[in-house]
Amino acid sequence: MILPWVLCGFGLVLLLLAGDALVKGAVNMSLRLGVPALIVSLTIVAFGTSAPELLISVQAILDDAPGLALGNVVGSNTANILLVLGVPALLATMHTAECNTRKTYNLMLAASVLFIALAFRGVFDWVAGSVLLAGLALMLLDAFRDAHRHRQACKSAPEEEPEGADPDLPWWRILLLLLLGLAGLPLGANLLVENATIIAKTYGVSDTVIGLTLVAIGTSLPELATTVMAALRRQADVALGNVIGSNMFNLLAIIGIASFVGPIPVDREFLTFDLWVMLGASVLLLPFVYLSWNITRVWGVILSGLYLAYLAIVLS
User: Fold this and answer.
1) In angstroms, rounded to a whole number, what is the distance separating the alpha carbons of residues 177 and 155?
2) Which residues span the membrane (predicted)?
């Protein structure tokens, strides 16, 4: 019984180390490419930290459990905002007032509204999947256009180097940091979730409770680890960009791809409660994006508390 506890601890350490490597790699890649760290975090970092959700959702459909695929994505998106931004803020204030994320935030809200509208069709099939993947393609095209414009602007007005960036860091080390981070995050999350499940079952916790809590939280652990390290390194753009990008990727890419593996029916509970909680959590970011508020420790308590309240309602 000691081994699961040891492996849980090892998984947590691996998550933190991999998150740190991913943030370092992303910041240095943004410096070398001449693009904002926000764009790197919206693409490479966000897609990498969403890998567990993709694997679990596809496997759930193959295992004839499509409801788990949808619940995983919706639950993870709610956890990404309330938990992934709340917990790091308890450790250090995230200076989101310095971030220009209005455009990407609007895209995330648009993706959420599109996702909810398609959910009211009653099923995510290949038609809905095609619409979602088309939305993903437009998002990526817009990100690359922004990156190109930023590089052109930097030629005439070089930017100040971001904290944690090393202009002399060779490309092979940047790519190694990214690969170690992207490989270590899902591995650490898997170790932590599997062994936490063993511990929970030992104490008589039901499979339903494990699924509603450990699976949704577990697949958000890569985002949490990355955001914690970004907050401690004062890289608020990486932290916020990771959450926004990951949420868009979850909605557009994961369900978009999974719907081609098999149809995903939408339960009435999602239409009346869970989807609206997800959208409400997204709207909560509005003052940090539009009013230049920082995510302070007080907000960390509020966001984390709201997530605990959501779990209590779901499990009641």
Assistant:
1) 27
2) 35-56, 68-91, 111-141, 171-189, 244-264, 270-291, 298-315
Whether this model's pTM surpasses 0.90: no
Amino acid in the structure at residue 99: C
Residue 161 has a pLDDT of 47
Complete DSSP assignment for 86-99: HHHHHHS-B-GGG-
Contact 20, 230 (CB under 8 A): no
d(CA 166, CA 92): 23
pLDDT of residue 157: 46
Q: Enter the tokens of residue 246.
A: 């990951």
**What integer pLDDT is reported at residue 167 of this predicted model?**
67
The SS3 of residue 122 is coil
Q: Spell out, as residue ranges, where the chain has pLDDT lower than 50.
A: 157-163, 207-208
Secondary-structure breakdown of the chain: helix, strand, coil percentages, each rounded to the nearest 5: 80, 0, 15
CB 9 within 8 A of CB 19: no
* Whole-number Å distance between alpha carbons of 118 and 125: 10
Query: Is the torsion defined by CA of 97, 101, 102, 105 positive or negative?
Result: negative
Report the C-alpha gap between 240 and 73 in whole angstroms: 18
155 alpha-carbon distance from chain centroid: 32
- The Cβ of residue 308 has, within 10 Å, a number of other Cβ atoms equal to 11
Helix (H) or strand (E) holding 264: strand 264-265
For tokens 């209005």, what's the residue? Answer: 102
What integer pLDDT is reported at residue 217 of this predicted model? Answer: 73
H-type alpha helices, the chain: 2-33, 37-40, 46-49, 51-62, 66-82, 86-91, 102-119, 126-156, 171-202, 207-210, 216-232, 236-249, 255-261, 268-269, 275-283, 286-290, 297-315
Alpha carbon distance 94, 25 (integer Å) = 20
